[in-house]
Design goal:
The chain is of the alpha+beta class and 126 residues long. It is built from two helices and five strands; from the N terminus they run βββββαα.
């Protein structure tokens, strides 16, 4: 089998991204991976997950939160953390109709909570 340029020993490379949310501290992040498919000396297939040229553990095995190092992490399809942040950001910046409150001051940093990240997953009552 031929190797993939820039990926020594790889017979195929797939790019995948995931969103993660820590169920302990609420930290959310997204990560893209290059998944390299290889064949070992005995002819068995195996994969390596690569981020920025470094082989890393599979994000599907036991992900750890970069904020608190806890291992109770929800794995979601890509874009979920960004869409949750955008929705929460819009919710915090736009006052409800008829409200006399002004939007948050520009440049104010928002501390993300688990509820902010998971808000978009909640179903609305019919």
């Amino acid at each position: 089998m031929s190797e993939i340029a820039g990926h020594p020993g790889a017979t195929a490379v797939v790019n995948e991204s995931y969103s993660f949310a820590c169920m302990r501290c609420g930290h959310g992040w997204e990560q893209s991976y290059e998944i390299e498919h290889h064949i070992d000396g005995d002819g068995r297939e195996f994969v390596q997950y690569v981020v920025d040229g470094q082989v890393v553990p599979s994000p599907l095995s036991r992900p750890a939160c970069a904020n608190c190092d806890h291992h109770v992490v929800r794995i979601m399809r890509p874009g979920r953390v960004a869409s949750a942040r955008d929705a929460a950001h819009q919710q915090h910046r736009t006052p409800p109709a008829g409200s006399a409150e002004a939007p948050a001051a520009g440049g104010e940093e928002h501390h993300w909570h688990l509820a902010d990240l998971l808000h978009v997953f909640q179903r609305k009552a019919s």
